[in-house]
Every structure is written in C-alpha cells, then in structure tokens.
Amino acid sequence: MSRRAAARLVRRLGPLVVEAPAARGMSDTQYGCANHTVNSRRRFHWIPSPQHPQYRRRTMGTYDAEHSANKASEVHKRTFGTAATHIQRNPAYSELNSDDVSYFKSILGENGVVQDEDRLAVANVDWMGKYRGASQLLLLPKSTTEVSKILSYCNSRRLAVVPQGGNTGLVGGSVPVYDEVIVSLAGMDKIISFDNVNGILTCEAGCVLENLSAFVENEGFIMPLDLGAKGSCHIGGNISTNAGGLRFIRYGSLHGNVLGLEVVLANGTVLDMLTTLRKDNTGYDLKHLFIGSEGSLGVVTGISVLTPAKLPSTNVAFLSCNDYISCQKLLLAARRNLGEILSAFEFMDDHCIDLAMRHLEGVQNPLPASPYKFYVLIETTGSDESYDKAKLEAFLLRSMEDGLVADGVIAQDISQASNFWRIREGISEASVKVGAVYKYDLSIPVEKLYDIVEEMRCRVGDNAEVLGYGHLGDGNLHLNILSSKYDDNILAQIEPFVYEWTSAQRGSISAEHGLGLMKAEKIHYSKSPEAVQLMASIKKLLDPNSILNPYKVLPQSVL
Ligand code: FAD
Ligand code: MLT
Ligand code: ZN
After folding, report:
1. Which residue out of 43, 478, 481, 510 has the highest number of ligand 2 atoms within 8 Å of its CB and is therefore the one to mutate?
2. Which of 34, 109, 263, 281 registers the highest number of CB atoms within 10 A of its CB?
3. Is 175 close to ligand 1, i.e. is its CB under 6 Å away?
4. CA of 349 to the centre of ligand 1 (A)
5. Distance from the CA of 232 to the center of ligand 1, in angstroms?
6. 59/56 Cα distance (integer angstroms)
C-alpha cells in the first residue's frame, strides 16, 4: 500500500471514543459483588454458561448415554469416543449416605445443600458439554469456616470433593468424574476491602470476575486479567487455573499480581496468607503453590490482588495480514513502537473469522471480504489521548508501508470496538456450536506457533475444520479442531501427535487452561519425571487422603 493510501486509511478512521466513567451508572459505595449492576462498556461480557438452558439442552458425543449408564463403581468412559480417558473409580473413597447429608445440613442449612436433580445436572457438566460427572450433592458454603467444616468432615469420611467456581474451565477440572461432592464457591461473593491508594482488592473467592472489574473500575482501577468467560468465571477459579487471558501481555501472570490468599486445606486447616504487602520475603511464598493448582491442593476462599490504575485512553485496531511471518513481524514492531501503551495483541486465522461470521449473532467483519489469511487485534491503553492516538496511527502507517498490514480499521466508537472484541472473544462460543471441539492450548515459540495448525490441517483433511487463534503476544496458541460429532478416528489423527510435536519444540501442552482431567495423564510431555514426582509429594503432604479433585492434574500412577 502506498504512503498516501495508508495515510488516507488511518485518517478516515478516528480513535475509539472512550465512555466517561460517570456515564457508567456505577455507585461509589456498592459492596458485595452479587449486587453490582454490570455495565458491558467495552465488550459483550456475558457468556452462555452451563447454567443457561441452551447448555443444559446441548448434548455432545456419547455423554447422555454415558450418564444414564453411569454407576459409581464402573470404569468411566467419557467424551471423545472410545479412545477417551478411562478411569477406574478409586474404591478408597466412601459413598455418600444420609448421615453425611444430615451433617452438611446441620452446618450449611437446607439452602446450602442441593440435591435437586436439575441443579445437580447443571453442576455435573462442564461448559463445553464434554465432561459429565454423577455427583449427588452440591454444597454452597457461605464462609471460610463452613468450607473448613466441610473439608474436615469429608477428609475424615474419605469423601472426594470437587471445588467449583464459575464452571467455565475448558479441561474438565471443575466437574466430578464420579460421585464426588461438589463444593461451589458461588455463595462467597463479597468484596472485603479496597485500598484505593495502592489499588489492592481483597475479596472472597466466589466473586465473578466481571463484577470485580465493574467494582474496581468505579474506583479508577482495572483488574489485571480479563477473559471471554468473565461474566461467569470466579476470581477463585481464575487463581486456581492461573488464568492468562487478554491482558497478560501488559500485566503478566497472576503469580505476579496476587498478593495474598486464604486457602482451606484438605483436613480443614485454614491457611491465612491474605496479606496485602507488595514485598514479603519471610520464607517460602506458599501462595504460589495454590495459584494454578486447579483445586488439587486446597480450596481458595480469599484473595488479595493488585489492580493497575485505569487509564483514560483506549484504542482498538482490527488488522489483516497476508501471511504468518507478517503477524510475527508486526508483534515485534508493536512491542518496539507502541511500547508501554500496548495492552493486547490477539491473533486469529481466516477460519476463525469465517466461523465467527457463521455462528455469532450480530457480528460483522470490520474488513471487506477478502482473501486475507490472518487477522490481528491490537489494543492500546494509555494516559494521553492525543499522544496515544498519534502513536498508534504512526505505527499502523509504518506497518502498512512495510507491508506487514494488508488492511485495517481503528474502532471509532464503543460499538465498533465491541464488535472487534466480540469476534475474538466469541471464537470459543462459535466453536461449540459446530458440535465437537477438540481443544488444545499450547505455549510454543512464536516463530513456530502456526506450523502445528498447518500440519494439523494436513492430518485431518476434510474430516474436521482446524482453527488457529490466541494470545500471540504471549506465545499462546489455541488450536481448535471442529467436527459435527466426536470421532475416534479424528482423535487418533490429533493425539498423541499434538503433544509430541509441542514437546519437541520444548513448548507447554497447557499454556493457560490447566491440565484438569483432559491432560492429567499427559503432564510428562511438558514436565520432567523428577518435577512430576515432587508435585506428587506435595499433593500427598497437603492432601494425604487425596480427597481434593481426584483424577485431575497429576497422573494416577504417581499418586
Ligand atoms: P471453574 O471452571 O469452576 O474451575 C476451574 C478449576 O479450578 C477446577 O479445577 C476447579 O476445581 C478449580 N477451582 C475453582 N474454584 C476454586 C477455588 N475457589 N478453590 C480451589 N479450586 C478452585 N482461560 C484463560 O486462561 N484465558 C482465557 O482467555 C480464557 N477464555 C475463556 C473464554 C471462554 C468463553 C471460556 C468458556 C473459558 C475461557 N477460559 C480462559 C477458561 C476459564 O474461563 C478459566 O480457566 C477460568 O479461570 C475458570 O474459572 P472458573 O471460576 O469458571 O473455574
Ligand atoms: C480464549 O483465549 O479465547 C480462551 O482461552 C478460550 C478458548 O480458547 O476457547
Ligand atoms: Zn486464551
């Protein structure tokens, strides 16, 4: 593109108009997440969750038949056809009896003990409709003391437990495998305090991320993480999965942003590490053990987290590139030229865009229908509107001149920005509408990251559609392989190839979603036997009866 044409394009498109905070209708003093009015200012935040009738109706693969045949002691065959995970119920666990239920009622009251079939059906199945357990009991504690009493009792009775947050996890970690008791943190959703000088939020684990975002934004801060599931996921779930998401490129991992945790151990001991200090080098920093441990080491009940200042100027650009190498060069150029204002660098291939247009209501391709293969969403956030705008425009102009960007638009208002984000954030939702999703979440050096997508297309041929998208700025590829129904032959073309290939690149088979049930037996592709053994020792130390989230995270053989 010529310099003149590029200049015209950039001039034609104005910057994103950022809504003034006062227009958001937030009260200054509202506490308690559940009561917050959520204002979807920038994006469409709510995602349909399993609690939604749409997901209750959806059936995938064999799970309905599986469910009706499901008995506590049989070998469990689940999800992607016959090659799927086969796990024997651990006979060391007790089966629930009426005395147990009476005990739970005595500590939680009738409302905190759910045996209703419909509610259990929702809590037993994951967001994708891919994993289904057969729990007969859902507990809803309202305090750390109640969580402690539940775990202490379950530990003495050898009742297995699954901690559950918003149930948006994508690796089968949040639902039971057999008859484990589900302990939902949904009733623990209070904000405890907010230090508006240092931007430190202290809250209970069951606060919904979107509600926390709305709360801190009203105080002039933002949450250090953001993800498409924010309307349903809990902060406790985010911490337990060490969720990455869309702001990782700017604010980094939760290991850096979480200041303190309160955790209840398997035997009911409450571990109070709920400090709000920025610096504390007194001994081992135990909170890190629980960040990303997926409910296998303890139940997170309280969190204090550092929230960055909210900056007034945001711009979002939606760009197309002709080839993958241009995306890589664009990332490097964005890092060099946008520097401190770069707040998101997300990537999608043309299959994602087609899918989003087919399945997401009301979204539009911001760019004319074209043969472009790759799309990049860049967001900048800064403190000086005219400086930020000039910086982004100059960057885009240069990128066009250099041939890195084929075409592009900058959002001119909130609704355009929302549309851009909706396309990127809606890919998971659009994927599940196709039928079966074989979902992989890989960390791979950026220069190699798209090779696996192309190889996978060759392997599966016309049997499935392969999507490549993700957080390019973090070297995190999401590889979704879609087909109308689960098929062992397709799975055999994908696995173990996808894990072997990733391991050969010294990548990670779980960048941000965790291992859950899906990849518990695959950990060795990314971790040495010594590291896995040490993890098993830690698990045995903290949870000697292995009641917490059984069959997940670690291979059965090491436990
Ligand atoms: P759940 O799904 O309920 O649980 C997840 C795991 O954490 C389970 O193992 C569970 O046992 C454990 N757990 C939950 N709460 C607690 C607790 N209080 N104490 C101990 N253990 C607990 N993930 C990303 O990293 N980045 C993304 O960009 C992203 N985008 C997503 C977009 C969509 C549309 C969807 C559906 C999911 C997305 N995810 C993403 C995955 C998911 O949202 C995250 O893993 C999220 O952090 C899970 O939170 P949750 O509250 O739903 O936890
Ligand atoms: C995303 O980045 O969109 C998520 O991690 C969810 C997904 O890959 O499905
Ligand atoms: Zn992601």
Report:
1. 478
2. 263
3. no
4. 25
5. 9
6. 8
The finding on whether 473 has its CB within 6 A of some atom of ligand 1 is no
3-state secondary structure of 171: coil
**Cα 480 to ligand 2 centroid, rounded to whole Å:** 9
Ligand nearest to the CA of 291: 1
432: helix, strand or coil: helix
The pLDDT of 127-152, averaged and rounded, is: 98
pTM here is 0.89
User: Which residue out of 424, 441, 449, 479 has the highest number of ligand 2 atoms within 8 Å of its CB and is therefore the one to mutate?
Assistant: 441
Task: Give Cβ neighbours of residue 249 (< 8 Å, ≥ 6 apart).
Answer: 342, 343, 344, 345, 471, 473, 474
* Dist. CA 363 → ligand 2 center (Å): 18
Q: Could you identify the atom of ligand 1 that is nearest to the CA of residue 226?
A: 28
Q: Are 443 and 508 in contact (CB under 8 A)?
A: yes
Ligand 2 pocket test, pick from 171, 230, 428 with the greatest ligand atom count within 8 Å of Cβ, gives 428
CB distance 127 to ligand 1 below 6 Å: yes
Tell whether the model's pLDDT for residue 37 goes beyond 50.
no
Which atom of ligand 1 is least distant from the CA of 234? 51
Closest atom of ligand 1 to CA, residue 295: 21
Dmax (CA) for the chain in angstroms is 78
DSSP assigned state of 50: T
> Interior CA angle at 479 toward 553 and 496, to 5°?
60
User: Rounded mean pLDDT of the chain?
Assistant: 87
pLDDT band at 510 (very low <50, low <70, confident <90, very high): very high
**The pLDDT value given to residue 7:** 41
Ligand 2 centre distance from Cα of residue 315 (Å):
22
Segment 342-364 shows an average pLDDT of 97
Chain segment 290-329, per-residue pLDDT in tens: 999 999 999 999 999 999 999 999 999 999 999 999 999 9
Ligand 2 center to residue 426 CA distance, Å?
9
Q: Check: CB of residue 243 under 8 Å from CB of residue 61.
A: no
Closest CA relative to residue 262, chosen from 217, 302, 218, 292: 302
Rg of the chain, C-alpha, whole Å: 23
User: Please, what sign has the CA dihedral across residues 273, 277, 283, 286?
Assistant: positive
Q: What is the DSSP string of 442-460?
A: EE--GGGTTHHHHHHHHHH
User: At residue 206, does pLDDT exceed 80?
Assistant: yes
Q: What is the pLDDT of residues 253-300, one digit of tens each?
A: 999 999 999 999 999 999 999 999 999 999 999 999 999 999 999 999
Distance 244 CA to ligand 3 centre (A): 7
Q: How far apart are CA 314 and CA 333, in angstroms?
A: 19
Residues 148, 241, 124, 110: is their CA dihedral positive or negative? positive
- Cα 348 from Cα 431, distance rounded (Å): 13
User: Helix, strand or coil for residue 122?
Assistant: helix
